[in-house]
Write a structure and sequence with these properties.
Layout: H1 2-20, H2 23-29, H3 34-44, H4 57-73, E1 87-89, E2 92-104, E3 107-108, E4 115-116, E5 127-131, E6 134-136, E7 142-143, E8 146-147, E9 158-162, H5 189-198, E10 203-207, H6 216-224, E11 226-229, E12 246-249, H7 251-258, H8 265-275, E13 281-283, E14 287-298, E15 301-307, E16 318-324, H9 344-366, E17 374-380, H10 388-395, E18 404-410, E19 426-430, H11 437-451, E20 454-456, H12 475-478, E21 484-488, H13 507-526
Parallel strand pairs: 6-9, 9-10, 10-12, 16-17, 16-18, 18-21, 19-20
Antiparallel strand pairs: 1-15, 2-3, 2-11, 2-14, 4-12, 5-14, 6-13, 7-8, 15-17, 19-21
């Protein structure tokens, strides 16, 4: 029965498809094939491109390659006011610690050996703290029955605390199936820093024994600085608040300071924990800590190729097709054998998909069968830095957000994930019904009519613990109420590893997934109406 039912259903589906298919759509879809896919990806994910990290030579090479491809297809550059109409310059900045100094009793300490300072804990103005004494406040806890700040005015003072722990938090009975109790939120470093910020302390010395044995990766991270967008003026921006100066110190530095109170890190921690009594003390040991930030604006750009629609009215509406061309760059471990994170799947495959679609639609237009609506093909930078390129576009759109009918975002379509090993006929679909049932219907119909790939909605949920809906560039469109679809093959053992190589890409599968996006785009760009947004961002029905 079941086999017969499936066979009958397939026969009906094929009969329906034969009627519904657009011959022109099929004709130009043939441009999207495994060979063309290999042509692009073998270049973009080569060692020569050095992992395409935003702000580096490899990313610039990739951007130039994509631009040349768009230009060769006959797409125009829609960006006005810049040096290159195919490039939307993104205000990408990197902030690195320019100067880090810590002295205790006049003795200079060594950065990344005796202490470290997190770059994001330093405001634009930096800090220069000089104190004649330090308030040692143990675990830094302030609550009913146990207040390590009782009788102390910490405003304008330097305070030293343990990085974690709460001696008043007692172990609860073990759960029925084992496990361990949750740590006290009061004892979290975040809450300790928050309290001292509110009390206007001058700075914080955080005792963390982990400083004594920093591994090479952590040292590289601390030396690398922080990255983000530098806006001239951002919509709904609020003034930035300078963070309280925080210096994380190792055991040796902490012991030197605590010697002024005739104790040590281990002894003080043991005494407070066993007695459950505060042991706050003012130690008359002078300390200074200084840090300054050097900010650099690096070249970074979104690459845009525009295909104007053929309909005099509908051409003012724009479908946006995206993928991110950046990856994570070179391996930080100096002892690594393979030093390039090639990013063939993430997201060389999606960038390749965008190029395949762009070429197919461009050929259709040259032959007089171009889409009625306009299509913007855009490969964005900075996704691996926090969706920065798409955030920039959503803040400074080249085409009005109100005229943008949907975003089809392609991020990792070249492989299978660990859950579906050996399956070469699936793709994860995320977001298609989050804002618009119309878009979801178009997506499913395009698949039924042309592709017949399994559209797995395993991750299509706002509450999915992986939070994939929020983790790629489509979200910067969705947050403005634009319907989106995220095409994804899931993660695998080579995710963000040097093993993400071209040799592991399934090019027929990449091509088939790209064709699904193409046929969906074809329907959206030629449909009588744009997808109606009938849901709010939280999934509740949208009222008129």
């Amino acid at each position: 029965m079941k086999k017969q039912f499936l066979y009958t259903g397939l026969a009906v589906m094929l009969t329906f498809s034969a009627v519904a298919q657009d011959k022109n759509a099929i004709k130009y879809s043939q441009t999207i094939n495994k060979d063309r896919g290999y042509d692009h990806l073998s270049i973009l994910a080569s060692d020569e491109y050095e992992g395409r990290e935003t702000g580096t030579k490899g990313a610039w090479m990739a951007a130039d390659y994509i631009k040349k491809q768009f230009k060769s297809f006959g797409l125009t550059g829609p960006v006005k006011g810049g040096k290159d109409p195919y490039f939307q310059n993104v205000g990408f900045s990197t902030k690195k610690l320019d100067k880090t100094i810590l002295t205790v009793n006049g003795q200079a300490k060594e950065n990344l050996k005796d202490f470290y300072i997190m770059p994001n804990a330093v405001g634009e103005a930096g800090f220069d703290i000089k104190a004649s004494s330090v308030i040692f406040a143990g675990f830094g806890i302030s609550k009913d029955g146990f207040d390590e700040y009782a009788g102390q005015d910490v405003a304008g003072k330097v305070v030293m605390v343990f990085s974690s722990g709460d001696p008043t938090s007692k172990p609860a009975e073990a759960p029925a199936q084992g496990g361990r109790r949750a740590p006290s939120s009061v004892g979290s470093l975040q809450n300790k820093i928050k309290y001292l910020t509110e009390k206007k302390a001058a700075g914080v010395l955080v005792i963390n024994p982990g400083v004594d044995n920093l591994n090479p990766q952590m040292k590289a991270y601390l030396s690398g600085g922080s990255e983000g967008l530098k806006y001239d003026k951002k919509k709904d921006a609020t003034p930035a608040v300078a963070p309280i100066p925080v210096v994380t110190i190792g055991t040796a530095v902490a012991n030197q300071i605590l010697s002024g109170a005739n104790t040590t890190v281990d002894a003080a921690k043991k005494a407070i924990t066993e007695s459950v009594k505060p042991a706050t003390v003012v130690i008359n040991t002078p300390v200074t800590f200084t840090a300054s930030i050097k900010e650099t604006i690096l070249r970074a750009e979104n690459v845009l190729g525009f295909l104007e629609g053929s309909d005099p009215k509908l051409k003012n509406e724009v479908l946006v097709v995206t993928g991110h061309y950046d990856h994570i760059g070179l391996v930080k471990d100096p002892n690594a054998v393979d030093k390039v994170n090639n990013g063939a799947d993430d997201d060389g495959s999606g960038t390749t998909g965008v190029l395949l679609l762009a070429e197919a639609f461009a050929k259709a237009k040259k032959a007089g069968h171009g889409p009625k609506r306009s299509i913007l093909f855009m490969t964005v930078c900075g996704e691996e830095k926090g969706l920065l390129g798409s955030e920039w576009y959503s803040e400074y759109p080249v085409f009005p957000i109100a005229n943008t009918i949907a975003n089809l975002n392609i991020d990792m379509i070249g492989r299978g994930d660990d859950a579906r090993l050996g399956d070469n006929n699936f793709v994860y679909i995320i977001g298609s019904n989050m804002l618009s049932d119309d878009l979801d219907n178009v997506s499913k119909k395009a698949n039924t009519d042309y592709v017949n790939i399994v559209m797995d909605e395993k991750y299509n949920n706002r509450t999915d613990p992986n939070r994939f809906y929020y983790r790629s560039d489509h979200y910067n469109f969705a947050k403005f109420g634009i319907p989106v679809i995220f095409y994804f093959n899931g993660t695998h053992k080579d995710y963000h590893q040097p093993g993400d190589e071209v040799s592991k890409i399934d090019f027929p599968m990449l091509a088939k997934r790209s064709q699904l996006v193409y046929f969906t785009a074809w329907e959206l760009a030629n449909g009588a109406n744009r997808p109606v947004v009938n849901k709010n961002e939280d999934g509740t029905p949208k009222t008129k």
